[in-house]
Write a structure and sequence with these properties.
Layout: H1 2-10, H2 12-50, E1 62-67, H3 71-74, H4 76-90, E2 94-99, H5 105-112, E3 118-123, H6 125-136, H7 141-144, E4 149-153, H8 161-164, H9 171-184, E5 187-196, E6 203-205, E7 208-212, H10 213-219, H11 231-239, E8 248-255, E9 258-259, H12 274-287, E10 302-308, E11 310-314, E12 326-327, E13 329-333, H13 340-352, E14 362-366, E15 368-372, E16 380-383, E17 386-389, E18 393-405, H14 408-419
Helix pairs in contact: 2-4, 2-9, 4-9, 5-6, 10-11, 10-13, 11-13
């Protein structure tokens, strides 16, 4: 023992390196062991759903998974197969996995999709945006939009996961919790934005649209990867050399919030007998007074000419209120009188929460708006973190258009917060 201790002391550099390596390796192995325990517990919970008896006349529920293997820098396929796929198969669902090969393919595949009981999106914000756009572009979207949607967060940016699932620093736990939430069946209605240009087909978003200097600088952050934690500040700092002050001119027309109609019952009443229907029709025919043409109330549009450093149009899905009585989207017009220091600091905040509305901004609640851009306007929109050419657009709110699976605890928190 003394000889070993003497050798370690005489070679203290190698000893220090070996201790550090063993400590790191032990920590890594312990993390892998904890991840395996999480997967095992999730699979056992999913097995309980698979063991439930169903009538022989009832077919298995069909689940169509749209997987983007390129998400999370190409790791999404491995993450899905290790953490989510076993849970789905053990639950007793008839699972069909559709893997996308290129950007925009999900929109085309949704046009050909046959009837399914569940739609599951495995990817990030871009995958969600593609799937809902393809879904709502269908001729029979009124039927397919009633299909509940599950979201398994596998991408670099997964904005919806903050609304639907509890926050978790462990990626494996976050994915398994999201997959189990699909099996538990609790859903919440989410608003959708319909964004339509003059020529192109409409694009749909569940988070919102951004146009301005912060978005443009945020896209370039990855180019400064070699600066480590300073890359965000560097991207915003160097963007000021291109043009300063950075102002974006536009004209905005908008309509105010609309009153929320009562929610339709999930179960439709049974159809009455034939003689009852005939009696009702005859009674309406003989008793109906002559129709008087109703005057159409003109829409009360507000118009605003703006100069801003950034404009954002966002849904209320991030602060979901299940009991609110009005439907609207948030329009944030940020002041263009910011200093260079404020621009760099706010740019870092925008990377964490892109749709935050800083103090001093003009906030508008609207159900519909038209954004007119001057001729020759350059730049791009960010629609659910996907880049689109900046053109004049009409943005329309589709309230409670889609239902997404969520964690039952998160839904209970939303209802409890609304009551308070």
């Amino acid at each position: 023992v003394v000889k070993v201790l003497t050798t370690l002391r005489n070679h203290w550099k190698k000893t220090t390196f070996g201790v550090c390596l063993l400590s790191w390796g032990g920590h890594w192995l312990y993390g892998k062991h904890c991840d395996n325990l999480l997967r095992r517990a999730a699979c056992q919970e999913a097995q309980a759903f698979g063991n439930e008896l169903i009538p022989s006349s009832m077919p298995l529920k069909k689940a169509t998974v749209f997987l983007n293997p390129a998400a999370c820098k190409g790791k999404a396929r491995n993450l899905f197969e290790k953490n989510a796929a076993p849970i789905l198969h053990l639950s007793g669902l008839d699972v069909t996995v559709v893997k996308t090969d290129y950007e925009g393919q999900a929109k085309k595949l949704l046009e050909l999709m046959e009837n399914t009981d569940l739609i599951i999106i495995a990817g990030g914000d871009g995958t969600v945006q593609e799937v809902i756009t393809g879904l709502l572009r269908r001729a029979d979207e009124a039927v397919f939009s009633k299909i509940p949607i599950g979201f398994i967060p596998l991408g670099k940016t997964c904005t919806l996961s903050n609304t639907l699932y509890p926050e978790s620093t462990n990626q494996v736990q976050h994915i398994t919790n999201a997959t189990l939430a699909i099996l538990k069946g609790e859903t919440v209605p989410l608003d959708v934005l319909q964004i339509k240009g003059e020529k192109e087909q409409p694009v749909f978003a569940v988070t919102g649209l951004r146009w301005g200097s912060y978005r443009d600088a945020g896209v370039k952050v990855s180019k400064y990867w070699y600066l480590g934690p300073l890359k965000t500040k560097a991207a915003h700092f160097f963007s000021m050399f291109k043009e300063w002050p950075q102002k974006h001119q536009a004209a905005l027309m908008y309509l105010g919030p609309t009153e929320r109609p009562p929610e339709e019952p999930e179960e439709k009443p049974s159809r009455p007998p034939l003689y009852v229907r005939l009696y009702r029709r005859l009674r309406l025919y003989w008793a109906s007074p002559p129709k008087v043409p109703q005057e159409v109330t003109p829409e009360d549009w507000e118009e605003l000419h703006l100069s801003t450093i950034e404009l954002s149009i966002a849904t209320r899905n991030r602060q979901l209120d299940l009991t609110r009585t009005e439907d609207f989207m948030d329009i944030c017009i940020e002041a263009d009188t910011v200093s260079k220091g404020q621009f760099v600091n706010r740019g870092s905040q925008k990377m964490r929460d892109p749709h935050t509305c800083p103090e001093g901004s003009q906030c508008i609640q609207a159900s519909r708006c038209i954004l007119q851009l001057p001729e020759g306007t350059e730049g791009s929109f960010g629609i659910d973190n996907e880049e689109y050419e900046a053109v004049p657009v009409e943005v329309k709110l589709l309230p409670r258009k889609l239902r997404f699976f969520c964690d039952p605890g998160m839904r209970a928190q939303m209802l409890h917060a609304a009551v308070q």
